[in-house]
Amino acid sequence: MDTHRTTPGPGPLLCALERIEQAPQADTLIDGLRKGVRALPLGPARDLLHGRPLGHPAHPLLVQVPIGTWLSATVLDLLPGRARRTAAPVLVGVGLAAAAPAAAAGWADWAELPPEQARTGLVHALANTAGVALYAASLYARARGRDLRGRALALAGLAAVGAGGALGGHLAFRQAAGANHAEQVGHRVGDGWHPLGPAAAFPVGRAALAQVDGVDVLVVREEDGTVRALADRCSHMGGPLSEGGIEDGCVRCPWHRSLFRLSDGWNVEGPATAPQPAFETRVVEGLAEARLIRVHRPHRHGRGPAAA
Length: 308
Ligand code: FES
What we know:
With 308 residues, the protein is an alpha+beta fold. The chain has 2 domains: 10-174; 185-307, Rieske Iron-sulfur Protein (3-layer Sandwich). Helices cover 45% and strands 17% of the residues. The chain has helices at residues 12-22, 27-39, 45-50, 59-62, 64-77, 82-110, 115-143, 147-174, 185-188, and strands at residues 194-198, 208-212, 215-221, 227-231, 245-247, 250-252, 259-261, 267-269, 278-284, 287-292, 296-298, 305-307. The strands form 3 sheets. A 6-stranded antiparallel β-sheet has the order 1-10-9-4-3-2. Helix 5 (64-77) packs antiparallel against helix 6 and helix 6 (82-110) runs antiparallel to helix 7. The chain is elongated. The mean pLDDT is 92. Bound molecules: FE2/S2 (inorganic) cluster. FE2/S2 (inorganic) cluster is lined by residues 234, 236-239, 253, 255-256, 258, 271-272. FE2/S2 (inorganic) cluster binds at residues 234, 236-239, 253, 255-256, 258, 271-272. Keywords: 2Fe-2S, Iron, Iron-sulfur, Membrane, Metal-binding, Transmembrane, Transmembrane helix. The chain crosses the membrane at residues 86-108, 120-141, 153-173. It comes from Streptomyces katrae.
């Protein structure tokens, strides 16, 4: 019996999330906010907020502290005894302090998202902002001796943060914000050497496009004849690196300006947190060939790894 024809489709929650993704009403506000966040003079701190040194976004890591402390505070709030009155406010306060760097990392990532993700991200941020406000009110109420009110506000805060967390999960896993968009390259490209094309056909110092096992590959021939090859789709959000500029041995992504080193794919500048899959190359009888680098070792003369 064919039961799949009658299996229910997406439920109301998923439909509501998809409506948020497609709702353009707040796009003007989003554009303005994103410009403002991008214009902040953060310098190297911006890459720290993105999590580039970690190799993945910092925001999911940083939110562990406020979520953990606030949840613990609520558990204490539900228990009898004096520990609740002394320890729970401390946990709420620690969570409020830790929410600041977590939010800063989230806003930095959010400013680089395409419209559908940015819409979900804005609602995620609004839910979490409501959570922060409720926890701040909870702390204030407790400080004034209004314990019951403080506990109720904390419970409401936890609900708001829970809704924000659910939206964050949708953003990360359904909409792939923060995911490595080049991760599949290692699964698609077979081991060994693959032909790229006649070396002389690649222009010197300019980006060109080739294919290896059906994967688009950016190819750059340097002045000394060395051929460089990286997976073409940017690890950040899939931007076409072959349409980017070549700068000082690196390629600049045309979408959000991540900078990848051509020799080993290291993400010298974010917002990309994952390096770009890179190939070692050789030229045999005029034919350029490429082999995917699967293991990196620490780079001796600069930041990031080098090919093994
Ligand atoms: S797609 Fe965002 S930096 Fe490349």
